[in-house]
């Protein structure tokens, strides 16, 4: 006989299921309140504020870059270099090709371009020395607003790749100078300049990639040692030379000067704190004043010490050149007056040890003409101390 549950039994079973469902719901609610809700709040609900915060950071950085560019850009100029060169006449040969020959006449031709930035309302402009190094060339400054001015070179820094040019103008916008000693690795910066000599006031951004680099910058037949420069990955192209590197507060913290052709986005700028003395000298004296000792020397290291059989492996060994026009000590110079002579090794100047890392020329950069400094040198087996009043480099 088949068995069936009576309606009463079915009702009891249904009531049991309802009770179990209520208990399961209650337990699930407790577990959810105790474990799931905190996880949800931690991982889901907080995600939106985080995304908002990240978006705010991006927005703030973009705003800072825009603000910095708006502050600096009006004072950034392009420098166009022209020169009178032989005019070439073109001819078509019987063999089916064109060739050129000098006509004997001269014509003004553009031979290069660079950048600069205005430091005084009456037209003083900082740029690189290599941008304005040709004494036979003419220089034209083009402002961001498109105005053109003839420029003359006012001063060159004998120890750095810095020059100051002057245009005749008034009420020009000027840059604000920052403090390059306060730079930090990873700090955001912007570079502005006449990229490729074609795209005026081009803006690129990047970070400070390195601080205190020593490099040898070369262009054509010229080369120059640059010390303690700023490395940046902000794109610096030919034509950017002399333009400003600025922080996000719109302060110029460097002068764009060189770029590595072997790598990618490896550019270098001269720290603005190295340029401030140049600016003050030009404003006050109309020229760049640099301290002058008056010696011809080689920096001693372990190899030089072994080769020359020297008693010390540091210092500046005073040496004469191959001709009488290259004396080890310049006659009448501060070094001459202090009694120095060829063969002496300058060990210290003003308490600073002369080494490969801290060369005599670098020490001189930190002094001005007229400074009187103690100098220690070695002659044979004797160490001597003298006082030297520094002159002014020509």
From TrEMBL:
> What are this entry's molecular-function GO terms?
serine-type endopeptidase activity
Q: Spell out the Gene3D superfamilies in the cross-references.
A: 2.30.42.10, 2.40.10.120
Top-level taxon of the source organism: Bacteria
Which keywords has UniProt assigned to this entry?
A: Hydrolase, Protease
In this chain the PDZ domain maps to: 297-358
Q: Is this entry keyworded Protease? A: yes
Pfam family of the protein (one)? PDZ_2
Name the Gene Ontology biological process terms: proteolysis
Q: Which PROSITE patterns match?
A: PDZ (PS50106)
Which SMART domains does the annotation name?
Answer: PDZ
The record's comment on protein family reads: Belongs to the peptidase S1C family.
Q: What is this protein called?
A: PDZ domain-containing protein
Organism field? Candidatus Doudnabacteria bacterium RIFCSPHIGHO2_01_FULL_49_9
């Amino acid at each position: 006989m088949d068995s069936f549950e009576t309606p009463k039994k079915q009702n009891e079973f249904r009531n049991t299921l309802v009770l179990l469902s209520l208990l399961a719901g209650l337990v699930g609610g407790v577990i959810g309140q105790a474990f799931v809700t905190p996880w949800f709040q931690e991982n889901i609900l907080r995600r939106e504020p985080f995304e908002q915060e990240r978006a705010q950071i991006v927005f703030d950085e973009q705003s800072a870059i825009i603000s910095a560019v708006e502050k600096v850009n009006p004072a950034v100029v392009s420098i166009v270099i022209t020169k009178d060169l032989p005019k070439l006449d073109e001819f078509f040969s019987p063999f089916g090709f064109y060739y050129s020959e000098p006509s004997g006449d001269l014509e003004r031709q553009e031979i290069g371009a660079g950048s600069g930035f205005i430091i005084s309302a009456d037209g003083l402009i900082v740029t690189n020395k290599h941008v304005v190094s040709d004494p036979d060339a003419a220089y034209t400054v083009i402002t961001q607003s498109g105005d053109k001015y003839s420029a003359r070179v006012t001063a060159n820094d004998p120890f750095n790749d810095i020059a100051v040019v002057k245009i005749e103008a008034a009420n020009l916008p000027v840059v604000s100078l920052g403090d390059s000693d306060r730079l930090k690795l990873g700090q955001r910066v912007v570079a502005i300049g006449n990229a490729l000599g074609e795209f005026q006031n081009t803006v690129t951004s990047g970070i400070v990639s390195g601080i205190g680099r020593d490099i040898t910058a070369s262009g054509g037949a010229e080369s120059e040692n640059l010390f303690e420069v700023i490395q940046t990955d902000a794109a610096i192209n030919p034509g950017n030379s002399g333009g400003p590197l600025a922080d996000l507060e719109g302060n110029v913290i460097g002068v764009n000067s060189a770029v590595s052709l072997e790598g990618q986005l490896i550019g270098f700028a001269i720290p603005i704190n190295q340029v401030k003395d140049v600016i003050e000298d030009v404003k006050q004296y109309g020229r760049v004043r640099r301290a002058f000792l008056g010696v011809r020397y080689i920096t001693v290291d372990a190899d030089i010490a072994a080769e020359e059989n020297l008693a010390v492996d540091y210092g500046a060994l005073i040496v004469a050149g191959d001709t009488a026009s290259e004396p080890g000590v310049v006659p009448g110079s501060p070094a001459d007056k202090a009694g120095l002579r060829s063969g002496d090794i300058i060990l210290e100047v003003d308490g600073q040890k002369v080494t490969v890392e801290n060369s005599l020329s670098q020490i001189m950069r930190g002094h001005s003409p007229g400074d009187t400094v103690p100098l220690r040198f070695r002659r044979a087996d004797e160490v001597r101390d003298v006082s030297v009043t520094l002159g002014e480099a020509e």
